[in-house]
Amino acid sequence: MKTDYKPAFIVFEGIDGSGKSTQVERLSERFTAAGIRHTCHREPTDGPVGQLLRRALAKDIPLDELTLALLFAADRSEHALIIQKELAAGKTVLCDRHLLSSLAYNAPALDGQWVHAINTPIRERIRPDITFLFDLPAEEALTRISARGDAPEHYEKGEVLQQVRARYLHWSEALKDPLLKIDASLPIDEQTDLLCVHLKEVFHYPL
Ligand SMILES: Nc1ncnc2c1ncn2[C@@H]1O[C@H](COP(=O)(O)OP(=O)(O)OP(=O)(O)O)[C@@H](O)[C@H]1O
Ligand SMILES: Cc1cn([C@H]2C[C@H](O)[C@@H](COP(=O)(O)O)O2)c(=O)[nH]c1=O
User: Fold this and answer.
1) Where is ATP annotated to bind (predicted)?
2) What is the value of pTM for the model shown?
3) So what's the ipTM on this one?
């Protein structure tokens, strides 16, 4: 069995409540147990632009869709520089959301090609080696979100998440980046096993 893996940029995507953060945490635990050096990231980031975005998502400050799309790209631009450094230092990067989120969420009011265009310089800096897309019907995601007990954020509404899910499926084909769609209704451990099998078979991670 080959185990000569090189550090990869691994992205987790899907609608709110689809289970991304849970899987980042589970995969991180498996990586730690296997001695794989890695770091966990998320977008929006915890940097200055990301913090502003989190306030807008929590409905603390009103920002329109154009401003949000520009801020998500700005936050990602800074983030790409950090990710490049982590990879160069030999660490695998697990990232909760990246470009596909902008295409899925920020394109309804705006032209999808324009959202793609403002992110193109970032794509030239960094591209995911693999994206795991956690696919779940919006109603199931909303049930999970309300069970979590947090106040619903800016995009956490049934009709919005239904459209976001459809745009995820469209853009995941259109981008042509390496992507594995996961049935997010499966039990948590079963999904983590699927991720590990893929990373072992395709990227030779010692999992
Ligand atoms: N496979 C699963 N089956 C049932 N419940 C799950 C599953 N995966 C995660 N959950 C639960 O669903 C809720 C949402 O999961 P999680 O926070 O990981 O989703 P998320 O995609 O990161 O959400 P968000 O984008 O809103 O932050 C959590 O309470 C989590 O424990
Ligand atoms: C990166 C990114 C995110 N969003 C949206 C998607 C979610 O509703 C929130 C982030 O919340 P999470 O609990 O951390 O998943 O932000 C977006 O609209 N565009 C983006 O580029």
Assistant:
1) 14-21
2) 0.98
3) 0.99
